[in-house]
Design a protein that fits this description.
- There is one protein chain.
- The longest helix is centred in the last third of the chain and has 30 residues, at about 190-220.
- Strand 1 (about 30-35) and strand 2 (about 40-45) form a beta hairpin.
- By secondary structure, the chain is mainly alpha-helical.
- It has a 3-stranded mixed beta sheet with strand order 1-2-3.
- The chain contains 8 helices and 3 strands, in the order αββαβαααααα.
- The radius of gyration is 19 Å and the shape is elongated.
């Protein structure tokens, strides 16, 4: 595998914090340039110039961290293109500084609480998809809540649920319940209908926002319908 391919693979592990999708499949990676010396330059783009600075910063910061971990990379530069706070964010990310350094006097602390909030929302949405799939396969509520993570098919949602739960400090081993509440306890059969109704709202919101972002990205950057901005 070439260094460029390994860099792209690493960028595929970087998730938009609000949409919980990889920046690669969302089309947010505008370009990747790799030199013979191992210097990597990544240009990131957002659907609009007015995307929230905190999300834009997290995306750029995480992308640079992921690229720097790739063996063979000598130096990594990540630039956020055409964003109204791009200069501030690019300077802070390039200096390994926190979000507060990008906007001194305007914000306090890091973005850890924001990360956790959206990881929890993402987990709810992913679990909703898994639950819906099991119900569609013919399982009843009691059978669904009796499942363990190890019982679920090894797909994108299962793997992402496991990663999110690990990041949140929730049970994530193969013997852990397939569906858990925010405190890590298993969801009971009697509460599943109401839990699923609320979880679907979160899932629909994330799915809709992702679709809107793809459409805006196409229009803003002149991407033809035949060009891939994967779902």
């Amino acid at each position: 595998m070439t260094l460029e391919a390994r860099v792209l693979e690493a960028l595929g592990t970087v998730y938009d914090p609000e949409l919980d999708e990889p920046v690669t499949t969302l089309g947010f990676v505008g370009s990747v340039v790799v030199t013979a010396a191992g210097d990597v330059s990544v240009r990131l783009r957002r659907p609009t110039p007015l995307c929230a600075p905190n999300f834009a910063y997290l995306m750029a910061f995480d992308a640079r961290a992921a690229v720097r971990r790739v063996p063979g990379v000598a130096a990594a530069t990540v630039v956020l293109e055409d964003h109204y706070t791009g200069d501030e964010i690019n300077a802070a990310v390039g200096a390994d500084a926190g979000f507060g350094a990008a906007f001194p006097g305007e914000t306090a602390g890091d973005l850890g609480a924001l990360r956790e909030l959206f990881r929890r929302k993402a987990l709810v949405a992913r679990q909703a998809r898994l639950c819906e799939a099991q119900l569609a396969a013919g399982l009843d509520a009691q059978a669904v809540v009796s499942l363990h993570l190890g019982d679920l098919p090894d797909g994108v949602d299962t793997r992402r649920c496991r990663a999110l739960r690990a990041a949140l400090g929730l049970p994530h081993g193969p013997d852990a319940p397939a569906l858990v509440a925010g405190d890590g306890r298993a969801i009971g059969a009697d509460e599943l209908p109401m839990w699923l109704r609320r979880a679907r709202l979160v899932r629909v919101s994330l799915d809709a926002n992702g679709g809107i972002c793809r459409s805006l990205l196409r229009v803003r950057h002149g991407i033809e319908e035949s060009e891939e901005v994967p779902a």
